[in-house]
Design goal:
By secondary structure, the protein is α/β, with parallel strands linked by helices. The chain has one domain: DsrEFH-like (Hypothetical Protein Ychn, Chain: A, 3-Layer(aba) Sandwich), CATH 3.40.1260. Helix content is 35%, strand content 15%. It is built from 6 helices and 5 strands. The chain has a 5-stranded parallel β-sheet, sandwiched between helices. Helix 2 links the parallel strand 1 and strand 2. The longest helix has 20 residues. The chain is globular. The termini are far apart.
Length: 184
């Protein structure tokens, strides 16, 4: 009986090296809508793509508990990824309609730099994320219940952020208006 170990070893080595080299060919990139945030991968031979004539409507439910206040909330940056990904694959920017509601521990991400710095001793790294979303037409809401529970008021918030009665209210109304719920 011949030893099959060398054959199996070389086959495994070939598969591992082949997988590593294939994975390195596709680096994530930004754009075409947001050039500094929202990295996405280009994927070949897709089996499912949206109809580019349809309007994509989504409400993002963000209650992320970012533990490091100096870092961006990666869930908020998912909206930039959504735009970059879909426009890259042919959906007109005008056919994308997004909204986001911040609640729970993500309420801090909507704070003015002065308030954020007083509480966390660092600048709010989410300001550019929220401003760039608002500039493109994304409605940014904060749950009034979470805001009040955390001890904040409207004067503490970025000007792009709208105070809602509750996150539950925003999510209900948007879903009633045919917005898909995206929750990470």
């Amino acid at each position: 009986m011949q030893n099959k170990f060398p054959h199996i070893f070389f086959l495994a080595l070939f598969l591992i090296l082949g997988t590593i080299s294939f994975g390195q060919d596709n680096e994530p990139t930004t754009g075409p809508v947001f050039n500094n945030i929202g990295v996405v991968y280009s994927i070949d031979s897709l089996d499912f793509l949206p109809d580019t004539s349809q309007h994509l409507k989504a409400i993002f439910d963000v209650d992320n508990k970012q533990t490091d206040p100096s870092q961006i909330n990666s869930i908020i940056s998912s909206l930039q990824r959504y735009y970059n990904m879909h426009v890259r694959y042919g959906v007109p920017k005008e056919n994308i309609h997004l909204a986001v509601v911040l609640h729970g521990n993500s309420t801090k991400d909507a704070l003015l730099t002065s308030v954020y710095k007083e509480k966390f001793n660092v600048d709010n790294s989410n300001i550019d994320l929220i401003k760039s979303l608002s500039d493109i037409g994304v409605e940014v809401f904060i749950c009034g219940q979470s805001m009040s529970h955390k001890g904040y008021s409207k004067v503490d918030l970025l000007p792009e952020v709208k105070v809602a009665l509750s996150a539950m209210t925003v999510l209900t109304v948007y879903q009633m208006n045919n917005y898909a719920l995206i929750k990470f």
